[in-house]
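Cross-posted from the bioinformatics board.
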Amino acid sequence: MPEALRKFTPIMFLALIVLVAITLLSLTSSITTPIVEKRIQQQVVDQMKGMFPDVVEWNEDDGLYTLFADEGKTDFLGYAFLATGSGYSSSGINILVGLEDAQTVKEIVILSQSETPGIGTRAMEPAFLDQFIGLNINDVNFIKNGGQIDGITGATISSSAIVNAVRDTAMKKVAQLEGAE
Amino acid sequence: MTSFIKEFSKGIVTSNPIFVLALGLCPALAVSDRLEKAVWMSLGVLFVLLCSNIIISAIRKYVPNIMRIPVFIVIIATFVTIISLVFEAFVPAIFDALGIYLSLIVVNCIILGRAEAFASKNSVKDSIADALGITAGFAVALIIISLIREILGTGGLAWGDTAIFTLPVLGDHPLTVLALNPGAFLVIGLLLALFRWVGVTKNE
Amino acid sequence: MSDLIAIFLGMALINNFILVQFLGLCPFFGVSKKLGNAVSMGLAVTFVMVIASIVTWIITRYVLIPFDVLYMSTVIFILVIASLVQIIEMFIMRTNYALYSAFGIYLALITTNCAVLGVTLINNIQKSYSFPESMAAALGGGIGFTLVLAIMSGIRERLELADTPKSMKGLPVAFMVGMLLALAFSGFGGII
Protein backbone atom coordinates (compact mmCIF):
# COMPACT_ATOMS: atom_id res chain seq x y z
CA MET A 1 0.00 0.00 0.00
CA PRO A 2 1.41 3.45 -0.87
CA GLU A 3 2.51 5.54 2.08
CA ALA A 4 0.01 8.34 1.43
CA LEU A 5 -2.88 5.90 1.41
CA ARG A 6 -1.78 4.24 4.62
CA LYS A 7 -1.98 7.58 6.43
CA PHE A 8 -5.64 7.83 5.59
CA THR A 9 -6.61 4.30 6.61
CA PRO A 10 -7.55 5.24 10.21
CA ILE A 11 -9.79 8.07 9.00
CA MET A 12 -11.37 5.81 6.37
CA PHE A 13 -11.98 3.17 9.01
CA LEU A 14 -13.78 5.65 11.29
CA ALA A 15 -15.79 6.95 8.34
CA LEU A 16 -16.81 3.38 7.47
CA ILE A 17 -17.94 2.72 11.05
CA VAL A 18 -19.93 5.98 11.11
CA LEU A 19 -21.55 5.05 7.79
CA VAL A 20 -22.60 1.64 9.10
CA ALA A 21 -23.87 3.30 12.29
CA ILE A 22 -25.99 5.82 10.37
CA THR A 23 -27.49 3.07 8.21
CA LEU A 24 -28.36 0.96 11.25
CA LEU A 25 -29.92 3.93 13.04
CA SER A 26 -32.03 5.13 10.14
CA LEU A 27 -33.27 1.55 9.68
CA THR A 28 -34.27 1.27 13.34
CA SER A 29 -35.89 4.68 13.39
CA SER A 30 -37.88 3.96 10.23
CA ILE A 31 -39.39 1.03 12.11
CA THR A 32 -39.98 2.73 15.46
CA THR A 33 -41.04 6.26 14.43
CA PRO A 34 -44.45 5.25 12.96
CA ILE A 35 -45.20 3.26 16.13
CA VAL A 36 -44.42 6.24 18.36
CA GLU A 37 -46.41 8.67 16.22
CA LYS A 38 -49.41 6.38 16.08
CA ARG A 39 -49.35 5.91 19.85
CA ILE A 40 -49.19 9.63 20.63
CA GLN A 41 -52.01 10.30 18.16
CA GLN A 42 -54.12 7.55 19.71
CA GLN A 43 -53.44 8.77 23.24
CA VAL A 44 -54.47 12.31 22.40
CA VAL A 45 -57.62 11.13 20.64
CA ASP A 46 -58.60 8.85 23.56
CA GLN A 47 -58.17 11.60 26.11
CA MET A 48 -59.97 14.08 23.87
CA LYS A 49 -62.97 11.73 23.69
CA GLY A 50 -62.95 11.47 27.48
CA MET A 51 -62.95 15.24 27.77
CA PHE A 52 -65.60 15.88 25.10
CA PRO A 53 -67.81 12.74 25.09
CA ASP A 54 -69.90 14.10 22.18
CA VAL A 55 -66.99 14.52 19.79
CA VAL A 56 -67.46 12.95 16.34
CA GLU A 57 -65.09 14.77 13.98
CA TRP A 58 -62.16 17.12 14.33
CA ASN A 59 -59.71 19.25 12.36
CA GLU A 60 -56.05 19.33 13.27
CA ASP A 61 -53.83 22.27 12.48
CA ASP A 62 -50.25 22.32 13.84
CA GLY A 63 -51.20 20.50 17.05
CA LEU A 64 -54.44 22.43 17.61
CA TYR A 65 -57.54 20.26 17.43
CA THR A 66 -60.90 21.85 16.68
CA LEU A 67 -63.67 19.50 17.75
CA PHE A 68 -67.19 19.06 16.35
CA ALA A 69 -70.19 17.00 17.48
CA ASP A 70 -71.34 16.02 13.98
CA GLU A 71 -69.80 14.66 10.81
CA GLY A 72 -70.46 17.82 8.83
CA LYS A 73 -68.17 19.79 11.19
CA THR A 74 -70.74 22.47 11.94
CA ASP A 75 -71.65 21.79 15.56
CA PHE A 76 -68.61 23.32 17.34
CA LEU A 77 -67.61 21.70 20.65
CA GLY A 78 -64.26 23.17 21.65
CA TYR A 79 -60.49 23.07 21.17
CA ALA A 80 -57.81 20.70 22.45
CA PHE A 81 -54.01 20.80 22.33
CA LEU A 82 -50.92 19.40 24.04
CA ALA A 83 -48.73 21.38 26.44
CA THR A 84 -45.39 20.27 27.88
CA GLY A 85 -44.13 21.54 31.22
CA SER A 86 -40.56 21.16 32.43
CA GLY A 87 -40.86 20.05 36.03
CA TYR A 88 -38.44 18.55 38.46
CA SER A 89 -37.81 15.33 36.59
CA SER A 90 -35.84 15.26 33.37
CA SER A 91 -38.48 14.24 30.88
CA GLY A 92 -41.21 16.84 31.35
CA ILE A 93 -44.94 16.71 32.03
CA ASN A 94 -47.27 16.21 29.06
CA ILE A 95 -50.67 17.83 29.49
CA LEU A 96 -53.75 17.72 27.26
CA VAL A 97 -55.68 20.97 27.54
CA GLY A 98 -59.31 21.29 26.48
CA LEU A 99 -60.89 24.71 25.80
CA GLU A 100 -64.65 25.40 25.64
CA ASP A 101 -64.03 28.44 23.48
CA ALA A 102 -61.03 30.60 22.71
CA GLN A 103 -61.10 31.99 26.28
CA THR A 104 -62.23 29.31 28.72
CA VAL A 105 -60.49 26.17 29.94
CA LYS A 106 -62.73 23.11 29.96
CA GLU A 107 -60.41 20.65 31.62
CA ILE A 108 -56.76 19.58 31.76
CA VAL A 109 -55.48 16.00 31.82
CA ILE A 110 -51.95 14.78 32.55
CA LEU A 111 -50.88 12.38 29.80
CA SER A 112 -47.47 11.43 31.12
CA GLN A 113 -45.10 12.54 33.86
CA SER A 114 -42.30 11.20 35.99
CA GLU A 115 -42.22 13.64 38.88
CA THR A 116 -41.00 12.56 42.30
CA PRO A 117 -43.53 10.12 43.77
CA GLY A 118 -45.29 11.57 46.81
CA ILE A 119 -44.10 15.13 46.25
CA GLY A 120 -44.30 16.37 42.66
CA THR A 121 -47.13 13.93 41.99
CA ARG A 122 -49.33 15.93 44.37
CA ALA A 123 -49.63 18.41 41.51
CA MET A 124 -51.19 15.62 39.40
CA GLU A 125 -54.13 15.04 41.76
CA PRO A 126 -57.70 16.22 41.05
CA ALA A 127 -57.56 18.65 44.00
CA PHE A 128 -55.03 20.69 42.03
CA LEU A 129 -56.08 19.95 38.43
CA ASP A 130 -59.79 20.66 39.01
CA GLN A 131 -58.94 24.28 39.78
CA PHE A 132 -58.38 24.80 36.06
CA ILE A 133 -61.97 23.90 35.11
CA GLY A 134 -63.87 26.88 33.75
CA LEU A 135 -61.02 29.36 34.21
CA ASN A 136 -60.39 32.15 31.76
CA ILE A 137 -56.97 31.48 30.23
CA ASN A 138 -55.77 34.85 31.50
CA ASP A 139 -56.47 33.69 35.07
CA VAL A 140 -54.37 30.55 34.74
CA ASN A 141 -51.74 31.71 37.22
CA PHE A 142 -51.05 31.47 40.95
CA ILE A 143 -53.01 33.76 43.24
CA LYS A 144 -49.82 35.49 44.36
CA ASN A 145 -49.14 36.32 40.70
CA GLY A 146 -52.65 37.72 40.08
CA GLY A 147 -54.32 34.51 38.89
CA GLN A 148 -56.84 32.19 40.50
CA ILE A 149 -54.89 29.01 41.27
CA ASP A 150 -53.81 27.84 44.72
CA GLY A 151 -50.24 26.58 44.65
CA ILE A 152 -49.09 23.43 46.45
CA THR A 153 -46.52 23.88 49.18
CA GLY A 154 -43.68 21.44 48.62
CA ALA A 155 -44.57 20.79 44.98
CA THR A 156 -43.78 24.28 43.74
CA ILE A 157 -41.74 23.21 40.75
CA SER A 158 -44.17 20.62 39.42
CA SER A 159 -47.28 22.74 40.00
CA SER A 160 -45.80 25.88 38.43
CA ALA A 161 -44.54 23.79 35.49
CA ILE A 162 -48.15 22.76 34.80
CA VAL A 163 -49.59 26.25 35.32
CA ASN A 164 -46.99 27.92 33.12
CA ALA A 165 -47.20 25.31 30.36
CA VAL A 166 -51.01 25.48 30.22
CA ARG A 167 -51.10 29.29 30.19
CA ASP A 168 -48.24 29.83 27.73
CA THR A 169 -49.41 27.18 25.26
CA ALA A 170 -53.03 28.38 25.50
CA MET A 171 -51.93 31.94 24.71
CA LYS A 172 -49.93 30.69 21.72
CA LYS A 173 -52.78 28.56 20.39
CA VAL A 174 -55.30 31.39 20.77
CA ALA A 175 -52.94 33.68 18.89
CA GLN A 176 -52.68 30.96 16.22
CA LEU A 177 -56.50 30.88 16.01
CA GLU A 178 -56.75 34.63 15.66
CA GLY A 179 -54.02 34.59 13.03
CA ALA A 180 -55.93 32.00 11.03
CA GLU A 181 -59.22 33.88 11.04
CA MET B 1 -16.41 -23.33 29.56
CA THR B 2 -14.61 -22.76 32.85
CA SER B 3 -13.17 -19.48 31.61
CA PHE B 4 -16.70 -18.46 30.61
CA ILE B 5 -18.00 -19.08 34.12
CA LYS B 6 -14.97 -17.42 35.68
CA GLU B 7 -15.42 -14.25 33.63
CA PHE B 8 -19.13 -14.24 34.40
CA SER B 9 -18.95 -14.68 38.16
CA LYS B 10 -16.14 -12.16 38.52
CA GLY B 11 -18.50 -9.36 37.45
CA ILE B 12 -21.06 -10.07 40.14
CA VAL B 13 -18.86 -10.37 43.21
CA THR B 14 -15.17 -9.61 43.13
CA SER B 15 -15.36 -6.82 40.57
CA ASN B 16 -18.94 -5.66 40.99
CA PRO B 17 -18.98 -2.43 38.99
CA ILE B 18 -20.97 -0.41 41.53
CA PHE B 19 -20.06 -1.73 44.96
CA VAL B 20 -16.42 -2.65 44.35
CA LEU B 21 -15.12 -0.65 41.42
CA ALA B 22 -17.44 2.34 42.05
CA LEU B 23 -17.93 2.79 38.30
CA GLY B 24 -21.09 3.96 36.58
CA LEU B 25 -22.35 5.67 39.68
CA CYS B 26 -24.49 8.25 37.87
CA PRO B 27 -27.22 5.78 36.85
CA ALA B 28 -26.92 3.94 40.17
CA LEU B 29 -27.99 7.12 41.95
CA ALA B 30 -30.29 8.57 39.32
CA VAL B 31 -32.56 5.69 38.33
CA SER B 32 -32.59 3.71 41.59
CA ASP B 33 -35.62 5.41 43.15
CA ARG B 34 -37.95 2.78 41.70
CA LEU B 35 -37.44 -0.95 41.13
CA GLU B 36 -39.06 -0.78 37.70
CA LYS B 37 -36.63 1.89 36.48
CA ALA B 38 -33.66 -0.05 37.85
CA VAL B 39 -34.69 -3.25 36.05
CA TRP B 40 -35.26 -1.55 32.68
CA MET B 41 -32.04 0.43 33.00
CA SER B 42 -30.18 -2.85 33.61
CA LEU B 43 -31.78 -4.32 30.49
CA GLY B 44 -30.64 -1.28 28.51
CA VAL B 45 -27.09 -1.66 29.82
CA LEU B 46 -27.20 -5.40 29.04
CA PHE B 47 -28.12 -4.76 25.41
CA VAL B 48 -25.52 -2.02 24.90
CA LEU B 49 -22.67 -3.78 26.70
CA LEU B 50 -23.36 -7.16 25.07
CA CYS B 51 -23.63 -5.79 21.54
CA SER B 52 -20.69 -3.41 21.80
CA ASN B 53 -18.47 -6.04 23.44
CA ILE B 54 -19.28 -8.53 20.66
CA ILE B 55 -18.68 -6.08 17.82
CA ILE B 56 -15.55 -4.58 19.35
CA SER B 57 -13.93 -7.93 20.04
CA ALA B 58 -14.89 -9.15 16.56
CA ILE B 59 -13.22 -6.20 14.83
CA ARG B 60 -10.42 -5.71 17.38
CA LYS B 61 -7.68 -6.86 14.98
CA TYR B 62 -8.67 -4.38 12.27
CA VAL B 63 -9.15 -1.19 14.30
CA PRO B 64 -6.25 1.23 13.74
CA ASN B 65 -4.73 1.95 17.12
CA ILE B 66 -5.03 5.76 17.07
CA MET B 67 -8.72 5.58 16.08
CA ARG B 68 -9.52 3.06 18.83
CA ILE B 69 -11.44 5.31 21.25
CA PRO B 70 -13.50 7.23 18.63
CA VAL B 71 -14.48 3.94 16.95
CA PHE B 72 -15.53 2.45 20.31
CA ILE B 73 -17.54 5.56 21.16
CA VAL B 74 -19.39 5.49 17.83
CA ILE B 75 -20.21 1.79 18.23
CA ILE B 76 -21.47 2.30 21.79
CA ALA B 77 -23.47 5.42 20.89
CA THR B 78 -25.13 3.55 18.02
CA PHE B 79 -26.36 0.75 20.26
CA VAL B 80 -27.49 3.27 22.90
CA THR B 81 -29.56 5.08 20.26
CA ILE B 82 -31.05 1.82 19.02
CA ILE B 83 -32.14 0.79 22.51
CA SER B 84 -33.63 4.22 23.24
CA LEU B 85 -35.59 4.14 19.97
CA VAL B 86 -36.87 0.68 20.88
CA PHE B 87 -37.79 1.75 24.43
CA GLU B 88 -39.56 4.84 23.07
CA ALA B 89 -41.65 2.71 20.72
CA PHE B 90 -42.51 -0.22 22.96
CA VAL B 91 -42.21 0.87 26.61
CA PRO B 92 -42.94 4.62 26.43
CA ALA B 93 -43.64 5.05 30.13
CA ILE B 94 -40.18 3.66 30.95
CA PHE B 95 -38.58 5.75 28.23
CA ASP B 96 -40.08 8.89 29.82
CA ALA B 97 -39.12 7.84 33.33
CA LEU B 98 -35.49 7.13 32.41
CA GLY B 99 -35.19 10.44 30.53
CA ILE B 100 -31.67 11.44 29.55
CA TYR B 101 -30.11 8.70 31.67
CA LEU B 102 -30.84 6.19 28.91
CA SER B 103 -28.81 8.24 26.41
CA LEU B 104 -26.13 8.80 29.02
CA ILE B 105 -25.26 5.08 28.97
CA VAL B 106 -22.84 6.30 26.25
CA VAL B 107 -20.59 7.98 28.80
CA ASN B 108 -21.07 5.31 31.46
CA CYS B 109 -17.52 4.41 32.49
CA ILE B 110 -18.49 0.73 32.73
CA ILE B 111 -19.18 0.37 29.01
CA LEU B 112 -16.21 2.23 27.54
CA GLY B 113 -14.07 0.74 30.31
CA ARG B 114 -14.99 -2.83 29.33
CA ALA B 115 -14.51 -2.08 25.63
CA GLU B 116 -11.04 -0.69 26.24
CA ALA B 117 -9.89 -3.06 28.99
CA PHE B 118 -11.50 -6.33 27.91
CA ALA B 119 -13.29 -6.61 24.56
CA SER B 120 -10.45 -5.01 22.59
CA LYS B 121 -8.03 -7.68 23.86
CA ASN B 122 -10.12 -10.86 24.19
CA SER B 123 -12.08 -13.35 22.11
CA VAL B 124 -15.74 -12.87 21.29
CA LYS B 125 -16.76 -15.70 23.62
CA ASP B 126 -14.93 -14.29 26.63
CA SER B 127 -16.25 -10.82 25.84
CA ILE B 128 -19.81 -12.13 25.96
CA ALA B 129 -19.14 -13.70 29.36
CA ASP B 130 -17.57 -10.46 30.54
CA ALA B 131 -20.57 -8.41 29.36
CA LEU B 132 -23.06 -10.78 31.00
CA GLY B 133 -21.15 -10.85 34.28
CA ILE B 134 -20.60 -7.11 34.52
CA THR B 135 -24.24 -6.41 33.67
CA ALA B 136 -25.40 -8.97 36.22
CA GLY B 137 -23.27 -7.24 38.85
CA PHE B 138 -24.64 -3.84 37.81
CA ALA B 139 -28.23 -5.15 37.87
CA VAL B 140 -27.86 -6.82 41.27
CA ALA B 141 -26.48 -3.60 42.75
CA LEU B 142 -29.16 -1.42 41.16
CA ILE B 143 -31.98 -3.74 42.25
CA ILE B 144 -30.76 -3.87 45.87
CA ILE B 145 -30.52 -0.07 46.01
CA SER B 146 -33.88 0.50 44.34
CA LEU B 147 -35.69 -2.04 46.54
CA ILE B 148 -34.49 -0.22 49.67
CA ARG B 149 -35.29 3.22 48.27
CA GLU B 150 -38.71 2.37 46.88
CA ILE B 151 -39.98 0.29 49.81
CA LEU B 152 -38.87 2.74 52.50
CA GLY B 153 -39.28 5.88 50.43
CA THR B 154 -42.81 5.25 49.16
CA GLY B 155 -43.99 2.68 51.72
CA GLY B 156 -44.59 -0.08 49.20
CA LEU B 157 -43.59 -1.57 45.91
CA ALA B 158 -45.20 -0.91 42.55
CA TRP B 159 -44.71 -2.13 38.98
CA GLY B 160 -46.19 0.15 36.38
CA ASP B 161 -49.49 1.35 37.76
CA THR B 162 -50.15 -1.76 39.87
CA ALA B 163 -49.07 -1.78 43.50
CA ILE B 164 -47.43 -5.07 44.50
CA PHE B 165 -47.79 -4.39 48.21
CA THR B 166 -48.12 -1.50 50.64
CA LEU B 167 -46.60 -1.57 54.10
CA PRO B 168 -49.01 -0.90 57.00
CA VAL B 169 -47.49 2.14 58.75
CA LEU B 170 -44.91 3.26 56.21
CA GLY B 171 -47.59 3.30 53.51
CA ASP B 172 -49.20 6.32 55.15
CA HIS B 173 -46.00 8.00 56.30
CA PRO B 174 -43.20 7.00 53.92
CA LEU B 175 -39.62 8.19 54.46
CA THR B 176 -39.90 10.25 51.31
CA VAL B 177 -36.37 11.60 51.58
CA LEU B 178 -35.02 8.16 50.63
CA ALA B 179 -36.77 8.33 47.27
CA LEU B 180 -35.32 11.80 46.69
CA ASN B 181 -31.75 12.69 45.76
CA PRO B 182 -30.24 12.94 49.27
CA GLY B 183 -31.61 9.43 49.90
CA ALA B 184 -29.66 8.10 46.92
CA PHE B 185 -26.39 9.26 48.46
CA LEU B 186 -27.40 7.95 51.90
CA VAL B 187 -28.50 4.45 50.82
CA ILE B 188 -25.54 3.79 48.52
CA GLY B 189 -23.04 5.20 51.04
CA LEU B 190 -24.41 2.98 53.80
CA LEU B 191 -24.42 -0.09 51.52
CA LEU B 192 -20.78 0.53 50.56
CA ALA B 193 -19.86 0.81 54.23
CA LEU B 194 -21.90 -2.31 55.10
CA PHE B 195 -20.15 -4.44 52.47
CA ARG B 196 -16.81 -3.32 53.82
CA TRP B 197 -17.85 -3.92 57.41
CA VAL B 198 -18.93 -7.52 56.78
CA GLY B 199 -15.82 -8.07 54.68
CA VAL B 200 -17.35 -8.58 51.22
CA THR B 201 -15.17 -5.76 49.96
CA LYS B 202 -11.89 -4.45 51.29
CA ASN B 203 -11.41 -1.33 53.38
CA GLU B 204 -9.39 1.42 51.77
CA MET C 1 -33.98 38.39 30.87
CA SER C 2 -35.67 37.06 34.01
CA ASP C 3 -36.20 33.75 32.18
CA LEU C 4 -32.47 33.50 31.54
CA ILE C 5 -31.69 34.22 35.20
CA ALA C 6 -34.23 31.59 36.22
CA ILE C 7 -32.61 29.00 33.94
CA PHE C 8 -29.13 29.96 35.16
CA LEU C 9 -30.05 29.68 38.85
CA GLY C 10 -32.13 26.58 38.19
CA MET C 11 -29.20 24.76 36.59
CA ALA C 12 -26.64 26.06 39.11
CA LEU C 13 -28.48 25.51 42.38
CA ILE C 14 -31.88 23.79 42.12
CA ASN C 15 -31.06 21.16 39.50
CA ASN C 16 -27.39 21.07 40.37
CA PHE C 17 -25.62 18.61 38.07
CA ILE C 18 -23.84 16.70 40.80
CA LEU C 19 -26.28 16.77 43.69
CA VAL C 20 -29.64 16.55 41.93
CA GLN C 21 -29.04 15.15 38.44
CA PHE C 22 -26.14 12.95 39.55
CA LEU C 23 -24.05 13.85 36.51
CA GLY C 24 -20.29 14.18 36.82
CA LEU C 25 -20.01 12.14 39.99
CA CYS C 26 -16.56 10.75 39.20
CA PRO C 27 -14.80 14.11 39.62
CA PHE C 28 -16.96 14.80 42.67
CA PHE C 29 -15.72 11.70 44.48
CA GLY C 30 -12.22 11.87 43.06
CA VAL C 31 -11.66 15.59 43.58
CA SER C 32 -8.39 16.51 45.20
CA LYS C 33 -8.08 18.24 48.54
CA LYS C 34 -6.58 21.32 46.90
CA LEU C 35 -9.17 24.02 46.33
CA GLY C 36 -7.17 25.33 43.36
CA ASN C 37 -7.31 21.98 41.52
CA ALA C 38 -11.03 21.58 42.16
CA VAL C 39 -11.75 25.05 40.79
CA SER C 40 -9.51 24.42 37.75
CA MET C 41 -11.36 21.19 37.00
CA GLY C 42 -14.71 22.95 37.40
CA LEU C 43 -13.73 25.84 35.13
CA ALA C 44 -12.39 23.47 32.46
CA VAL C 45 -15.73 21.60 32.50
CA THR C 46 -17.68 24.89 32.37
CA PHE C 47 -15.62 26.04 29.39
CA VAL C 48 -16.18 22.79 27.45
CA MET C 49 -19.90 22.87 28.37
CA VAL C 50 -20.33 26.35 26.92
CA ILE C 51 -18.38 25.61 23.73
CA ALA C 52 -20.14 22.24 23.28
CA SER C 53 -23.52 23.92 23.81
CA ILE C 54 -22.76 26.49 21.13
CA VAL C 55 -21.66 23.87 18.59
CA THR C 56 -24.43 21.37 19.33
CA TRP C 57 -27.08 24.12 19.23
CA ILE C 58 -25.94 25.09 15.73
CA ILE C 59 -25.89 21.43 14.62
CA THR C 60 -29.33 20.73 16.08
CA ARG C 61 -30.89 23.86 14.60
CA TYR C 62 -29.36 23.67 11.13
CA VAL C 63 -28.72 19.96 10.55
CA LEU C 64 -30.67 17.62 12.84
CA ILE C 65 -34.03 19.42 12.74
CA PRO C 66 -34.12 20.29 9.00
CA PHE C 67 -33.17 16.72 8.03
CA ASP C 68 -35.47 15.26 10.69
CA VAL C 69 -32.74 13.10 12.21
CA LEU C 70 -33.00 14.14 15.87
CA TYR C 71 -32.48 10.50 16.84
CA MET C 72 -28.84 10.86 15.72
CA SER C 73 -28.22 13.39 18.47
CA THR C 74 -26.45 11.09 20.94
CA VAL C 75 -23.97 9.81 18.35
CA ILE C 76 -23.26 13.26 16.93
CA PHE C 77 -23.03 15.08 20.27
CA ILE C 78 -20.54 12.63 21.75
CA LEU C 79 -18.37 12.86 18.62
CA VAL C 80 -18.56 16.67 18.77
CA ILE C 81 -17.56 16.70 22.43
CA ALA C 82 -14.69 14.26 21.87
CA SER C 83 -13.28 16.27 18.96
CA LEU C 84 -13.81 19.60 20.73
CA VAL C 85 -11.86 18.42 23.74
CA GLN C 86 -9.02 17.30 21.44
CA ILE C 87 -8.97 20.61 19.58
CA ILE C 88 -9.10 22.71 22.74
CA GLU C 89 -6.31 20.64 24.24
CA MET C 90 -4.10 21.08 21.16
CA PHE C 91 -4.91 24.78 20.94
CA ILE C 92 -4.06 25.50 24.56
CA MET C 93 -0.89 23.41 24.38
CA ARG C 94 0.43 25.42 21.42
CA THR C 95 -0.63 28.89 22.57
CA ASN C 96 -0.32 28.99 26.33
CA TYR C 97 1.78 26.29 27.92
CA ALA C 98 1.30 27.62 31.47
CA LEU C 99 -2.47 27.28 31.07
CA TYR C 100 -2.01 23.83 29.55
CA SER C 101 -0.01 22.57 32.49
CA ALA C 102 -2.74 23.83 34.81
CA PHE C 103 -5.78 22.51 32.88
CA GLY C 104 -4.37 19.86 30.51
CA ILE C 105 -4.88 16.74 32.58
CA TYR C 106 -8.46 17.72 33.40
CA LEU C 107 -9.33 18.30 29.76
CA ALA C 108 -8.57 14.70 28.81
CA LEU C 109 -11.04 13.44 31.42
CA ILE C 110 -13.87 15.64 30.22
CA THR C 111 -14.92 13.58 27.18
CA THR C 112 -16.44 10.93 29.42
CA ASN C 113 -17.84 13.43 31.93
CA CYS C 114 -21.58 12.82 31.75
CA ALA C 115 -22.34 16.41 32.72
CA VAL C 116 -21.09 17.72 29.36
CA LEU C 117 -23.13 15.28 27.23
CA GLY C 118 -25.95 15.82 29.73
CA VAL C 119 -26.09 19.57 29.24
CA THR C 120 -26.12 19.28 25.42
CA LEU C 121 -28.93 16.71 25.56
CA ILE C 122 -30.97 18.79 28.02
CA ASN C 123 -30.53 22.00 26.00
CA ASN C 124 -31.24 20.61 22.56
CA ILE C 125 -33.43 17.54 22.92
CA GLN C 126 -35.28 17.67 26.20
CA LYS C 127 -36.07 21.36 26.56
CA SER C 128 -35.37 22.68 23.03
CA TYR C 129 -33.84 25.84 24.46
CA SER C 130 -33.19 28.92 22.34
CA PHE C 131 -29.58 30.01 21.91
CA PRO C 132 -29.45 32.46 24.88
CA GLU C 133 -31.29 29.93 27.04
CA SER C 134 -28.74 27.24 26.12
CA MET C 135 -25.93 29.58 27.11
CA ALA C 136 -27.60 30.36 30.45
CA ALA C 137 -28.10 26.64 31.10
CA ALA C 138 -24.51 25.71 30.17
CA LEU C 139 -22.99 28.52 32.26
CA GLY C 140 -25.31 27.83 35.19
CA GLY C 141 -24.65 24.09 35.05
CA GLY C 142 -20.89 24.66 34.91
CA ILE C 143 -20.83 27.21 37.73
CA GLY C 144 -22.98 24.96 39.92
CA PHE C 145 -20.65 22.06 39.15
CA THR C 146 -17.58 24.15 40.07
CA LEU C 147 -19.24 25.38 43.27
CA VAL C 148 -19.99 21.86 44.51
CA LEU C 149 -16.48 20.61 43.60
CA ALA C 150 -14.99 23.54 45.52
CA ILE C 151 -17.16 22.88 48.59
CA MET C 152 -16.27 19.18 48.43
CA SER C 153 -12.53 19.89 48.25
CA GLY C 154 -12.77 21.93 51.45
CA ILE C 155 -14.73 19.20 53.23
CA ARG C 156 -12.27 16.53 52.02
CA GLU C 157 -9.48 18.32 53.83
CA ARG C 158 -11.37 18.24 57.12
CA LEU C 159 -12.43 14.62 56.58
CA GLU C 160 -8.79 13.52 56.52
CA LEU C 161 -8.42 14.72 60.10
CA ALA C 162 -11.78 13.38 61.28
CA ASP C 163 -11.98 10.08 63.16
CA THR C 164 -14.10 8.09 60.70
CA PRO C 165 -15.03 4.43 61.37
CA LYS C 166 -12.79 2.12 59.33
CA SER C 167 -15.52 0.84 57.02
CA MET C 168 -16.76 4.38 56.33
CA LYS C 169 -13.36 5.74 55.24
CA GLY C 170 -13.03 7.07 51.72
CA LEU C 171 -15.99 6.56 49.41
CA PRO C 172 -18.80 5.81 51.94
CA VAL C 173 -18.16 8.96 53.95
CA ALA C 174 -17.94 10.95 50.72
CA PHE C 175 -21.46 9.69 49.94
CA MET C 176 -22.61 10.91 53.37
CA VAL C 177 -21.16 14.34 52.60
CA GLY C 178 -22.98 14.18 49.25
CA MET C 179 -26.23 13.48 51.10
CA LEU C 180 -25.77 16.45 53.44
CA LEU C 181 -24.90 18.76 50.55
CA ALA C 182 -27.93 17.50 48.59
CA LEU C 183 -30.17 18.19 51.60
CA ALA C 184 -28.67 21.66 51.98
CA PHE C 185 -29.09 22.42 48.28
CA SER C 186 -32.71 21.23 48.32
CA GLY C 187 -33.33 24.38 50.36
CA PHE C 188 -32.77 26.36 47.15
CA GLY C 189 -35.88 24.67 45.71
CA GLY C 190 -38.21 27.53 46.48
CA ILE C 191 -36.20 30.48 45.21
CA ILE C 192 -37.68 30.58 41.71
